[in-house]
Design brief:
By secondary structure, the chain is mainly alpha-helical. About 80% of the residues lie in helices and about 0% in strands.
Length: about 50
């Protein structure tokens, strides 16, 4: 029974990390997009042929 309680605790800790990882991933993706759009404003919407 002890190992099951430990596994539950680790699983709950893992679930609590998912929102943190999601926020970090979205922040990194948006920051990358914003920086790229700052330096190359037209390439995202009007790519060169």
């Amino acid at each position: 029974m002890r190992t099951q309680n430990k596994q539950q605790a680790y699983f709950l800790r893992y679930l609590s990390l998912i929102p943190v990882i999601a926020v970090l991933a979205i922040s990194v993706a948006f920051s990358t997009w914003a920086i790229f759009n700052y330096f190359f404003p037209d390439l995202l919407f009007h790519p060169m042929p």
